[in-house]
Amino acid sequence: MKELSLFLGCLIPNRYPGIEKATKLVLDRLDIKWSELKEASCCPAPGVFRSFDRITWLALASRNLALAEEKNTDLLTICNGCFSSLSDANNILKSDGNLRNEVNTHLKKIGKEYLGTIDVRHIIEFLYRDIGAKTLGKFIEKPLEVRCAVHYGCHLLKPTKDRKLGKSECPVFFDELVEATGAMSVPYEGKTSCCGAGGGVRSAMPETSLKMTEYKLERMNKAGVDCIVNACPFCHLQYDAGQVELAKTGKVYSLPLVHYSQLLGLALGYTPDEVGLHLNAIISPEFEEKIAQIQKRNNSD
């Protein structure tokens, strides 16, 4: 298995360092060779830079890719947006020699060159394809008996022709990884719809963004779940901060957010504090107590 360079992106170190810690803990526990990608920049954000200036987007993304190429490692992301930006840029530059040459004229000014020798991986895609849900299940020490609303997020699924992880309308790969932890993935209406954050909607149209979030939360809540499991810190932020904003209007959901790295960390025996659940805006003592009781019961079995 090829060594991986961990690309943290912007949001995780600055807003949700618990996701960073949980990811590093689980990679070590699974005996996956990795190292942090030093000197990396923003991916950059696919809904912003790519929309305004394609060459600027490709140049910034290719610099990150070149850093991983220098280490001869694939790039591992833990964010849907980072995955979309870096993976799409990598695919475009590998297939278009003219664009590759143009981008390299910019990189040459800082002593870098993009060669197209590595792949970009998302932690969900990587775990599903290279480890597999069944093998992952063998590592589980504290099976989680919790009901989860799995949120895939847009960029993990589309464009379908590039992701190649099954049908984007009815995916199952993320659910299988969630259930490998002993948790239950609970069906709910609108499962593959957007959280409301992406494409600049959260910044440009906050009311529309919040309505999209409310749509999802209402249906998750109706399904009777214990938590929301996501694979992207921007989706994580939207549900977390979004619930705070909705509570101000009298609409209270109190659904805790768990990035998959954190869920897997809990199933491997790490405590809620060790994987950083207490760093969310929405904190659920009931959920954390339920996890503690599950882990305690497993210790006595």
Structural class: alpha/beta
Q: Main sheet, how many strands, which sense, barrel?
A: 4 strands, parallel
Q: Compute the gyration radius: what is it?
A: 19 Å
Number of helices: 16
Distance N terminus to C terminus?
34 Å
Q: Return the string of H and E elements.
A: EHHEHHEHHEHHEHHHEHHEHEHH
In short:
The protein is of the alpha/beta class. 52% of the residues lie in helices and 9% in strands.
Molecular structure report:
- The chain has 301 residues and is of the alpha/beta class.
- The protein folds into 2 domains: 120 residues, Glutathione S-transferase Yfyf (Class Pi), Chain A, domain 2; 168 residues, no CATH class.
- It is built from 16 helices and 8 strands.
- The strands form 2 sheets. It has a 4-stranded parallel sheet with strand order 2-1-3-4.
- α13 packs across α14.
- It is globular.
- The chain starts with a strand and ends with a helix.
Task: Outline the fold blueprint.
Layout lengths: L3 E4 L3 H5 L1 H13 L4 E3 L12 H4 L1 H18 L2 E4 L2 H16 L1 H11 L12 E3 H9 L1 H5 L9 E4 L3 H4 L2 H4 L9 H7 L4 E2 L15 H4 L1 H17 L4 E4 L2 H15 L9 E3 H8 L17 H16 L1
Parallel strand pairs: 1-2, 1-3, 3-4, 5-6, 5-7, 7-8
Q: What structural keywords apply?
A:
four-stranded parallel beta sheet, 16 helices, 9% strand, alpha/beta, 52% helix
